[in-house]
Backbone:
């Protein structure tokens, strides 16, 4: 199934995930100094930039693994209609996503269990609590 972008209703970009980190006082002080000196707009700007730089450093490794493991890079969304179509075709899905996997709110736990053989998400999974609970044994 093709990847379908998930956009928040008020924004023209994918929904962001929050990430909480613990950081030492000295590192935090250095971050604040760089912000104060105008190198970055705020702490989050520096942290996002550092993460992007590290991802860029390892871009070739990411590309190789995505190819080797047949992982969808980006956002992939599954509606009840998508899963019903797979079920009608007798297909069991092995979902592998690096980014955001969305199982739509209209998907029942029964339909998810009938059609999703395995689920690997490196990033974030958006699904109802009932669907997440049903698939817990199929998460890799």
Residues:
């Amino acid at each position: 199934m093709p990847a379908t972008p998930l956009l928040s209703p008020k924004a023209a970009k994918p929904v962001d995930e929050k990430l909480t980190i613990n950081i030492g006082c000295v590192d935090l002080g250095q971050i604040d100094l760089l912000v104060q000196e105008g190198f970055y707009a705020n702490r989050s700007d520096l942290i996002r930039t550092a993460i992007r730089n590290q991802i860029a450093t390892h871009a070739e490794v990411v590309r190789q693994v995505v190819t080797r493991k047949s992982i969808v890079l980006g956002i992939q969304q599954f509606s009840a209609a998508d899963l019903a179509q797979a079920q009608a075709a007798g297909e069991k899905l092995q979902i592998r996503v690096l980014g955001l996997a969305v199982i739509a709110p209209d998907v029942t736990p029964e339909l998810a269990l009938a059609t999703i053989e395995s689920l690997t998400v490196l990033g974030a999974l958006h699904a109802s609590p009932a669907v997440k609970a049903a698939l817990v044994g199929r998460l890799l």
Q: What stands out?
A: The first strand starts at residue 72 and ends at 78. The radius of gyration is 19 Å. The beta strands are 72-78, 93-103, 116-126.
